[in-house]
Amino acid sequence: MNDVLQKLPAFVSNHTALVALFVVILVALVATEVGRLFRKWKTLTPAGLTQLINRDTPLIVDLSASADFEKAHIPGAKNVAMSQFDPETQKDLSKAKELPVVLVDKDGRGVGKAANRLIKAGFPKVFVLEGGTYAWQTAQLPVVKGKK
Question: Which of 25, 61, 116, 118 has the smallest count of CB within 10 Å of its CB?
Fold first, then answer.
């Protein structure tokens, strides 16, 4: 261990770009994890969503494009285009303020902003499906095709 600590300054001076890249990646990783700890909404796995469906009656909002929604979606999900997503004016959402609301999209990457908007609108139970519909299908859970 002492040998490593003695060689560390020489390594850092000889490989400054590599060390700088390591520091940038480390800071980004820490910032991501701190952000995850302090956000108000929670993520669910497909198994976690199945448990929530069995326990409660969540409103599942699929923010995928209409074409993706028609190809496959979670049974009971309501399709709302991301461009038209407004928690203040959506009829389904305003009725379900006390219900758990689960946001889904094709791959789970684009729903964080929508979840934050729901939190700001006063929804206390907001969830996001990690991996979206793709993760749901990969877990071999049932999907529905078509508009409804």
Answer: 25
**Inter-residue contact 127 to 102 (CB < 8 Å):** yes
- Kindly state the average pLDDT of the residues 105-132: 90
How far, in whole angstroms, is CA 108 from its chain's centroid? 5
pTM comes to 0.78
Residue given tokens 């793709």 in the structure block: 134
Counting beta carbons within 10 angstroms of the beta carbon of residue 128, is it exposed (0 to 12), middle (13 to 18) or buried (19 or more)? buried
SS3 of residue 12 by DSSP: helix
Whole-angstrom distance, CA of residue 116 vs CA of residue 96? 16
How far is 41 from 116, CA to CA, in rounded Å? 7
Give the CA distances from residue 7 to residues 13, 14, 24, in Å, rounded to whole numbers and listed in that order: 10, 11, 22
